[in-house]
Specification:
Elements lengths: L3 E7 L4 E4 L6 E15 L5 E11 H10 L5 E14 L5 E16 L57
Parallel strand pairs: 4-6
Antiparallel strand pairs: 1-3, 1-5, 2-3, 3-4, 5-6
């Protein structure tokens, strides 16, 4: 099974280009992913820099809504490809081909999008809390959820699955 799930921050702005012939959108960017528990000789945490490739409409979304420092979650697979450079030497490239990219937060340490950000129209961060409960709905955590079933529940041993 070839499955990768990474969370990191973009090291530079995404680059978008279109393929010849099929005119498919392809977006390239690199994310920095912390190595948890591993420290460099200076005592700082180290990071891996992982190239990511996104295709088609998600590629255009990445170009439009991501920039250097944006935090993302990438779901995809690892691909190793080869090519010959100008000197005729064989080169190997290892990259993640993203099947899904989720925009987790803005730049820096703040994971919430700020409306003070000067942008051109809405971004995916504006709609991040779409599953939130309506403001007028409240939940009483002290209420008994079984109050409507009467004072006791009768269960025989034959009804128990164990």
């Amino acid at each position: 099974m070839n499955k990768v799930f990474l969370i990191g921050r973009l090291t530079r702005d995404p680059e978008l280009r279109y393929t010849q012939g099929s005119n498919a959108a392809v977006c390239n960017f690199t994310i920095a992913v912390d190595r948890v528990g591993v420290q460099s000789t200076g005592g700082n945490e180290t990071a891996d820099f992982i190239p990511v490739v996104v295709w088609n409409k998600p590629a255009e979304n990445c170009k439009n809504y991501l920039s250097k420092g944006s935090q993302v979650a990438v779901d995809g697979r690892i691909q190793v490809r080869t090519y010959d450079d100008q000197n005729g030497q064989r080169r190997y490239v290892t990259e993640v081909i993203a099947s899904r990219v989720e925009f987790l937060g803005g730049k820096g340490g703040n994971s919430e999008y700020s409306n003070n950000n000067t942008s051109e129209g809405p971004t995916p961060y504006d709609f991040a809390n779409t599953n939130a409960a309506p403001a007028n709905k409240t939940t009483d955590v002290d209420s008994n959820p079984f109050a409507d079933f009467g004072s006791s529940i009768e269960i025989s041993d034959d009804e128990l699955p164990f």
